[in-house]
Amino acid sequence: MGFRSMKLATWIAVAILVTGTAASAYAEEPPKGWWQQITINAFASASYTWNFNNPSTNLNQLRAFDYDHNSIRIDAAELVVQKAVAAKGDFGFRIDMAMGAVAKIAAARGLFRDPATGIAGDFDLQQAFASYIIPVGRGLRVDAGKFVTPVGAEFIDGYDGYNDNFSRSLLFTWAIPFTHTGFKLSYPFSDKLTAMVMLVNGWDNVVDNNSAKSFGVSFTFTPIGPLAIYLNYIGGPERDHQDSDFRHLVDLGVVYHLGSRLTLTLNADYGNDTNAIAPAAAAPGIPTPMAPDPVAVAGAATNAQWVGVALYVRVQASKRFAAIARGEIFWDLDGFRTGVQQRIMELTLTPELKITDALVLRGELRIDQSDQGVFTRSDGATTRKYQPTIALNALYAF
User: Which of 40, 133, 164, 310 is most buried (CB neighbours < 10 A)?
Assistant: First the structure.
């Protein structure tokens, strides 16, 4: 090989080395700073609901967020800022700011709900917590702050998930809490079993209403791919200035996927609040010759109980269209939750059309039925035992 050939070969080798080094440097970018890992997402939902009872109050009874009759309204407008955690040693946070009907109903006492009047506005700090995954075993996750409850088959909609039905179930509205403030620890024991424990102020309280705390434990079990089982318990005193009478809540959820097009979900709740029912008013005894003026006798306080079961069927007819049916029954055995001792049943049918992956349109037909006359009529003076409604909902998440 001549000098010119050797020189050309040398330059080619140098060029390849420099090009390869530059490409390698470009591929191995330095890790992002924590501020570069922050994401911002949003969710918005609007709807219209018509109540065939045409209530004089323009309010739908026993509903959570869809309480307005004959009104186009903003259900929720939410902004989420977060730094997610996934690996051991990760530190992050999440802040959910919510506006609309969801804020009026789900706001916790002591933050954006006045603890004295119980009135909430149109804004709520729905979640605000810090997270850290302790590098122990598979990774022990710690969350501290305000977060949505792990209980129930339904949840407060957001950019990262929304319920199959537009309206909320009776169990979501009356059987369980919305949020908690405190600490929770989560640990995946295996690919099939995850456990969580929490210590919180109680149900929907940022500022505690008594001196005691509530605790909870949850298990998520996925024995086989299409089956998931959830078991939750929350216990602790929940009434104002009462530190000894426990409220117990047990929640069970079972989700089963029959192929890619059919999903069945079962949810059941049982609640018991110790001594929550005030004693009966004192009643005079029966006069006798030995006691012509007997002392009045009062009853004892009793426990409040509520029970509910809901079944969901989701049929994914195509990539863009699905149909969902929900049927449930809820017993307010002592009138402690709804204010009336009653048995309520409801059936909901919801067609869902995904215009895009982010934009969803839903219709809804729902019928509530109680064994008591609790649903307002147009004259305002009489009531019915049933309440049929239709609704149209549009939501957007990104």
Answer: 310
Q: Which two tokens stand for residue 343?
A: 């048995």
Q: What is the pLDDT of residue 264?
A: 98
CA angle 117, 123, 125 (to 5 degrees): 100
Render 19-48 in DSSP notation, one character per residue: HHHHHHHHHSPPPPPGGGG-EEEEEEEEEE
The DSSP code sequence of 306-374 is EEEEEEEEEEE-SSSEEEEEEEEEEEETTSTTTSS-EEEEEEEEEEEEESSSSEEEEEEEEEEEESS--
- Could you tell me the residue range of the domain that residue 301 belongs to? 37-277+294-397
Q: Is residue 77 part of a domain?
A: yes
- Report percent pLDDT > 90 for the chain: 81
Residue 237, CA distances (Å) to 197, 211, 243, 244 in order: 17, 9, 6, 6
Distance, CA of 155 to CA of 380 (rounded, Å): 33
pLDDT at 84: 95
Render pLDDT for 277-332 as a digit per residue (tens, 0 to 9).
988 765 555 554 545 555 555 578 999 999 999 999 999 999 999 999 999 999 99
In this structure, is residue 118 part of a structural domain? Answer: yes
Nearest in space to 261 (alpha carbons), one of 188, 327, 337, 314: 314
Q: Is 11 helix (H, G, I), strand (E, B) or coil?
A: helix
Q: What total of structural domains would you count in the chain? A: 1
Residue range 213-219: average pLDDT?
Answer: 98
Q: In this structure, what CATH number is given to the domain that contains residue 226?
A: 2.40.160.10
Least-confidence region, from 195-204, 243-252, 277-286: 277-286
User: E strand or H helix at 393, and its extent?
Assistant: strand 386-397
Angle at 259 (CA atoms; ends 253, 261), nearest 5 degrees: 90
Residue 5 lies in a domain: no
Query: What mean pLDDT, rounded, does the chain reach?
Result: 90
